[in-house]
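Quick start: read one record
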Amino acid sequence: MIFGSRTPAFFFVLFVVGILISRPDFGVFEPASADPFLDHRELLEAQSFWDNRDFEWFENNIPFLDTPDAEINTTYYYRWELVSKHLTYGSPTTGYLWTEFINRPFWSGAYGGISCPSGHQFYEVRWLHNPRYSRDFARYWFRTPGAQPRRYSAWMADSAWATHLVHPNKAFLADLLPDLEKNFDGWTRRSWVPEAGLFWQVGHDDGMEFNIASRQTKNILSGAPSYRPSFNSYMWADARALAKIARLTGDFGKAKTYQAKADALKQQLQKKLWDPKREFFFPMFRNDEEDKEGNRIKKNTLIYQSGKFAGSDHGREEAGYVPWCFKLPDPGYEAAWKVLMDPDYFYSEFGPTTVERNDPLFLLSKGCCWWSGQSWPFATTQTLKGLANLLHHYEQSHVSRADYYKLLRNYALSQRKNGKPYIAEALHPDTGSWAGHDMYYRSEHYFHSGFVDLVITGLAGLIVEDGDTLTVDPLIPADWAYFALDQIPYRGHRVSIVWDKTGKRYGRGAGLQVLVDGQKLASSPTLKKLTAKMPPAKEVPLDPRREVNFAVNNDGNYFPRFTASHTGPKSFLAFINDGNTAWYHLKPPLRWTSAGSPNESDWVAVDLGMSRPVTQVKLFLLDDGEGQPVAAPHEIVLEYSKGDASWKSVPNQKASPEKPVGRRPFTVGFPEIQAQKLRAVFKHAEGKR
């Protein structure tokens, strides 16, 4: 568990602290045994962008990538840092979740969770070695008061199943199944139209506020109810996942029911939302509509089949590719992809446009949330996911493997600002500028998209399946001399994918190799699709969840309560125990400091409100870099109290690292004590505060 705090200091060298306090005998996730063949620390230290330098956490949790493309490498590791930045410990009963924004806007749910990007977030974080994070996140949506699983479109059941395929555990899914069914039933009550055989949604709640459908109605922000290819694909994916989960638990009648729902929905989506003339999937308006000019849209017509632009050959939105994210379409619809790489339609240097270029409503807005042309990482992720599925599972000649790499590299390069890794809400498709879509204390390092999963399942070509067949079909460029993805958690094992044209890069022989738990499972002298029988899947145990962060207070309770000897200007103790710990940036300043203190040493203390068994404290320390006034303290001493006014040094303290270092946790372990209060005393560096 982790907790963060920070804020700017002015004239003195000071630090910031986040605190985790845990009770004893906490469960530790035991990974599968497999020695890494890449030097993980070397790969981390090769990157210069790090804000969060908790390299031990990354070494313990992520698969490691090595390619000849430095931009792909940098974005890959940056996206793992992004995951760490948004990892939040909500409460002792909730555990972990991920936020979308670094702040917690009024439209977010409990502790900052927002359902709109949850599918992308699940697909990313399922590749963490410790499944507790993603499993807590799945529980969060249904068992935390104030979470809002249906505030926006999402694919919750599919996400739970996708996580299970990486970290199998039947008991976890069986326990979650009633919640997933209630969620599906909630959407059905709200949005199912029996006569259409489809679900309706408005653009705003589908994550697309100002879009070319909504702009043909009187409510250009939210739009009118329509049968959207995206939302109906999500519901199809959820119905199919529910069928699989029910089958796994032995309820074959329930599985048959959900599979029938999925089959019927797929049939109607392909029948009604596909336009054979324009060869694309389009939204269909549920009702008669009228815009502010009096132009009328007819009920049950697709975009531009009626209204002001009736008869137009355009109207294609990037969301029309979403069905392939889930391998929904039958063979025969692949012609939709022939326009993806055409600059007159979707292709641009910094990601596909959200609407085809020559559409009459194409618009590049200077302000937020106009999905009528901007490049949108959320949609780019879906398009690349769909493209990988197309290349892996369909026969077609419209797009190539080279196109996948080209778009993925464009996407990697788009995640930059002033030459450094960065992502905000949307960008100009031709210049790569985030201007107008990069709001202060909101959009910084925005977690509303994916990239890691695209590398693992697309570029590296790990085909995620429910069975003991391992299929790897890399989409890497044919001229690459080497490529490696090491320590991928998969079905209770560790998988590594290695391409070494000459055998000199990794010293394990020439060609393509797939290793499982360190043992070679399949190989080829050339880049090609490999299929082999895996060792049987091993259930990845449920974390006992005995590690509890007693310091967090996101619910506004009186305890735990923090005090400090000095609080610097624009510095807030509230940030010290908000459950977010990997944000060390100077701006925005989500921090506490003792800037301006006249003292040689300062302290921060927490009153837990009652006696607790404690064995560990983590302090997350700031260091704003050379020439900046905020740095880690020279020394930290941990004290405790049983509730009275007296303080004692915690006995037998063992610190890691031995000396305080900024931008990573300073962990103090000790034999169990009973404590109501804990205090960290900071001795300032010489001549600094």
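The CA atoms of residues 139 and 176 lie 7 Å apart.
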